[in-house]
Amino acid sequence: MKQVTKESKVKSLRTELRKIGSNARHTFTGIFEKTGWKDGYRGSVQTILLLDIKDEHGQVVTDHLWFNFTRGFEAANPMEGDVLQFDARVSKYIKGYMGYRDDVYGHPIEEDYKLSRPTKVVNLTHPERMLDLPPLEKSHSKEEKDTTPTEKQLDFIKTIAEELEEEPPEIKTREEASSWIDRHIRLFDRAKQHDAYLDRVNQAKDSYLSGRSLIEVAEEMGLTVSTIRKYKREWETHKVTQAQ
């Protein structure tokens, strides 16, 4: 029997979000667990953790999601165990390790789904605790109107462009930077995977040509003999191509 891990269960549930799609906003519920903090572009941002997220039909779409602790969640005045209702839209995002350290494993770059821009938050468990918060005054400060790309975004774009051997683009807004990163991070990931594959093929080739048998090469690299045979076909085909 196939073992169902926590990670595979979460991944299976997140596919329910993908099925809902992002064309319209939908109503969801979740159980308030706790608040927390994360690093943002302008400093620390307070967050909120909801468990057992369900759609309007009562179907569980994911076992947990983190949101920014928005004005709506603040007005709901939740306590642990309270069921909160809110409207949101399904959106896609990129997660995983995006650096260059070879010793970081288990966090591949991949697409995942979340709920974005929650509104109309209601505390279903204790509606009497809802707060009537005054509207926030709009700030006209230069910082609030600043939409230029962050230094972190520009550095990341420059790094990816260099790895892909492209000229860094002229990015004028944070939204443009985010879109560029989303498009190119998949190319970057595929390039890294291809380079790693070629490294393994060349390692197997050098070991084999030094006099080791296919079985010895497989044991040395911790791979199967069939994989080493596949690598052998790769470098032999490459040699034939060069000879032509």
Secondary-structure map with pairings?
Layout: H1 6-20, E1 26-40, E2 43-54, E3 60-68, H2 71-76, E4 83-95, E5 110-123, H3 142-145, H4 151-163, H5 174-209, H6 214-221, H7 225-243
Antiparallel strand pairs: 1-2, 1-4, 2-3, 4-5
Summarize the structure.
This protein is an alpha+beta fold.
Name its key features:
244 residues; 5-stranded antiparallel β-sheet
How would you characterize the overall build of this protein?
It is a single chain. The model is unreliable at 1-6, 8-12 and 240-244 (pLDDT under 50). The protein is elongated, with a radius of gyration of 25 Å. It has a 5-stranded antiparallel beta sheet with strand order 3-2-1-4-5. It contains 7 helices and 5 strands. The protein starts with 5 loop residues before the first helix and ends with a helix. The chain is α+β, with helices and mostly antiparallel strands. The longest helix has 36 residues, at 174-209. It has helices at residues 6-20, 71-76, 142-145, 151-163, 174-209, 214-221, 225-243; strands at 26-40, 43-54, 60-68, 83-95, 110-123.
Largest sheet: 5 strands, antiparallel
Label the overall shape: elongated
Count every helix, treating DSSP H or I runs of 4 or more residues as helices. 7
The span between the termini is: 50 Å
* Residue runs with pLDDT of under 50 for 5 or more positions: 1-6, 8-12, 240-244
Q: Give me the oligomer status.
A: single chain
**How many distinct beta strands?**
5
Strand content: 25-35%
Sheet with most strands: strand arrangement: 3-2-1-4-5
